[in-house]
Design a protein that fits this description.
The protein contains 18 helices and no strands. The protein is an all-alpha fold and 412 residues long. It has a domain at 28-116. Helix 7 packs parallel to helix 9 and helix 12 (267-290) packs across helix 17. The longest helix is centred in the N-terminal third of the chain and has 40 residues, at 76-115. It starts with 5 loop residues before the first helix and ends in a 9-residue tail after the last helix. Keywords: Membrane, Transmembrane, Transmembrane helix. This is DUF2029 domain-containing protein. The chain crosses the membrane at residues 71-89, 101-120, 140-162, 174-196, 208-227, 239-262, 268-288, 350-368, 375-393.
Length: 412
Amino acid sequence: MSLFSAPVKRALLIFLFALPLLSGVVGKISKSNAWFGDYRAVACGAQKIIDGGALYDMNLKCEDMDGTTAVYVYLPVVAEAFAAVVRVIGQDGLFVLYTGLYVLSLAVLFWGTYCVLPGTKEDSTETESVAPTLMQKLPFAAFLTGSAIVWGNIAVLGHAAVLASAMTARRFPWLFVAVVALCGVVKPVFLTYLAVVLFLDFSVWKRLGLFIAGAVAGVLPTVLFAAEHSPLSEQWRQTLSYFVYSLTPGESFYGWLSLVGIRADSSIASIGWLVFAGLMTLSGLAIAEGLRLSSRARIWLGLSLGVLMIPRLMSQDVFLIGVGLVYAALHARDLSAPSKPLMVFKDRGLTILTVLCLLCLIGGAAELGDYTTRLATLGLSLYVLTLGVLTFAQRRDIVLSALLPRLKTSPQ
């Protein structure tokens, strides 16, 4: 006889995996100076544009802005956009507007990830047997910490916009590409979400066209600004280099390199990331086509792999990390297993994913999060790469025929 009823077990598990987030937020309630530090960086940057002050300052500070202010690291155009708003409604109005959008974005991220059923009427091939449940997605909440909410980072607005537009990407792909490109102007790492259009069941040329258009539009402002070699662009480059490559390399690729003593600004890191991102994308293509994923599953797979491919993964970037991986694990059961280890791998995918989430959860509780979170994201990436290889090995003809329709395939 079970000690707890099913609803109680459910509530306890929700509390357990949400504990890093809840404890982080509660711990900051009494520390008002810690709230919205990243927002103040953007708001202060806007004020510097208006007043003609220094935008890239390691000790950025503005009058009438109490509390911790993060360093401004974005392109000047972002501060200029916020400055335009400030000129109309003032700093108080900007704070009210931003807070409203921020709360709405959090609602979109949490509701869209954990509450809304991933299936849609358009996905006629999708059944309840392959649609992730709340309890299957819940373990990934362990990656969220209080700082993901407390600091008020503009990335939260970006991830919510990407999620909302992604849900219509099959019908309105250009809208999704435009949203990702716009977010990429703020933070180029958002461009990894363009994996979504590569995984959708369009023709190869349409996929490539959407991807290239989004990538060029998103990265062009950064390239042009960096190519100016002006005093302002040099200040931006130095500030960004310090925070991205030295101070906080993050919890993914750059973080993995830091564990073995490789700097993120080295040529090895740049080439290594391109190889890693390429292999992750190829694995995603093999999974999407070989497992015959529905449109909604392909979208979520692209979002989850997009998160894992962010080279400098921060706490505010992990909201969408899990659902696509759960989809992949559920569909992997359809593969055959020529050996017992592969049978365990394909049939116990959800268990593997949950163990990696528990590693992140326990490591955070033991104050080893700087190591365990990076190991967990590495494990998730290796899971994707292994599943991609296994899928392609077994269903190569299906994958190739989907990408190259004119290719003659042998029966499966």
